[in-house]
Amino acid sequence: MDKQSYIVSTKNLSKRFNTKVATEKGWKKTTVAAVSDVTLDIAPGETLGLVGESGCGKTTLGRMLSLFYLPSEGSMIIHGVDVSTLKPKQVKPLRQHVQMIFQDPVSSLNPRHTVESILTEPMKIFSKDSAQVRREKAGNLLEAVGLSAADLSKYPHEFSGGQRQRITIARALVLNPAFIVADEPVSALDVSVQSQILNLMKDIREEFNLTYLFISHDLAVVHHLSDRVAVMYLGRIVEIAARDSLFNDARHPYTHSLLRSVPTVVPNKSKIGRILQGDPPSPIDPPTGCPFHPRCPHAVDICRDTVPALTTVNSAARHEAACHRMDDIKQQSGGPL
User: Fold this and answer.
1) What number is the average pLDDT over the span 18-46?
2) What is the CATH number of the domain that holds 177?
3) Do the beta carbons of residue 209 and residue 97 sit within 8 Å?
4) What is the pLDDT of residues 93-131, one digit of tens each?
5) Which of 171, 217, 270, 282 would you call most buried, defined as having the most Cβ atoms within 10 angstroms of its Cβ?
6) Sign of dihedral through CA atoms 42, 48, 53, 58?
7) 3-state secondary structure of 110
8) Which residues contact 84 (CB under 8 A, 6 or more apart)?
9) How many degrees, rounded to 5, is the angle at CA 71 between CA 69 and CA 74?
10) What is the sign of the dihedral through the CA atoms of 172, 173, 174 and 177?
11) Residue 120 in domain
């Protein structure tokens, strides 16, 4: 597929932030690489799951792809336009094609505005529709997400958490976007409500011809919704593959550690003692070489000196992993770790 045919296509995408750190002599200016050298493509109609520990850069990458942040380096093609070549003012017309669903539906909805105001405000900015047309569209979208057009006059506090998240989903749809970034959209909800929202997201993906980047800590949720999965560690993609290929034949030690950490109703004794220990390194002072090597039981000298590149594991499954020892580990174990 041609790069321009993808909804999202990035190459060597990086984002750095200026910050200050405390030293013996006072505060020192430095930069933090929140996202480093990310290359990925998302096809129309596809859902790419993005997983990793807190602080690994998932939200920063999501905010870049939803046009909140412009890249520090690399290229980022969104809806056929290379955003990395644009000035901030030139990005505005693209925003109608990319929307975001936030983690917390309470803080993402203005408590002083009615649902009608929340849903019609984006239409006032990007369309010339009359107030009546905007109201009708808002009502139709509420019904599409399982609410009622009669709810337009209500305020966010009059709804439950799951209903508020349905409103945020409706708001993400008002401009007919091609691409939606969903950042932990069900983590703040009860388990019983999570499944309803996930099924809703699957339904509207088909109905509205949407493409998703779905960010989550929950691998079970990612498995339910995603077509492909990318694993992120300390700002880098360390493995990416079709969902079943990654879950059944993961090649990166970090991916294995995430899979082993998934809780089950009946504990699996084979997991005991093999769950990843410790915390990720600070992005302010990242390790040399492979960012995972300080926590990896398979690390050797090359891991400490050289950053591994994403290497094809299975071309049919678009499976790539960034590990110097993935073939050795596979042979030693005779299968998944």
Assistant:
1) 90
2) 3.40.50.300
3) no
4) 898 999 999 988 889 999 999 999 999 999 999 988 899
5) 171
6) positive
7) coil
8) 70, 71, 74, 75, 76
9) 160
10) positive
11) no
81-82 vs 73-78, strand pairing mode = antiparallel
Per-residue pLDDT, 3: 63
Q: How many domains does the chain have?
A: 1
Question: What was the pLDDT predicted at 333?
Answer: 46
**Predicted confidence band at 330 (pLDDT cuts at 50, 70, 90)?**
low
Q: Which residue has the tokens 């979208």?
A: 141
**Cα(205)–Cα(208) distance, rounded to whole angstroms?**
6
Please determine, for residue 135, whether its predicted confidence score (pLDDT) is greater than 70.
yes
Q: How far is CA 266 from the centre of its chain?
A: 29
User: What single-letter amino acid sits at 124?
Assistant: K
% residues pLDDT > 90 (the chain):
69
Domain housing 315? 3-19+33-114+158-333
**What pLDDT does residue 273 have?**
41
Half-sphere exposure for 22 (CA within 13 Å, toward CB)? 0
pLDDT at 72 over 70: yes
pLDDT of amino acid 151:
97
Q: What is the pLDDT of residues 271-328, one digit of tens each?
A: 444 567 778 888 888 999 999 999 998 899 999 999 999 999 999 999 999 999 988 7
Q: Which two tokens stand for residue 242?
A: 């079709």
CA distances from 57 to 36, 110, 280 (A): 9, 27, 12
- Alpha-carbon gap, residue 105 to 35, rounded angstroms: 26
In a domain, 139, yes or no: no
Indicate whether 135 belongs to any domain.
no
> Which amino acid does the sequence have at 93?
P
Residues whose CB is less than 8 angstroms from the CB of residue 6 and which lie 6 or more positions away in sequence, other chains included: 41, 42, 43, 44, 77
Hey, what are 60's tokens?
């920063």
Q: What is the largest CA-CA distance in the chain?
A: 67
Cβ-contact 213, 42 below 8 angstroms: yes
Domain membership of residue 24 (yes or no) is no
- Cα angle 17-20-22, degrees, rounded to a multiple of 5: 150
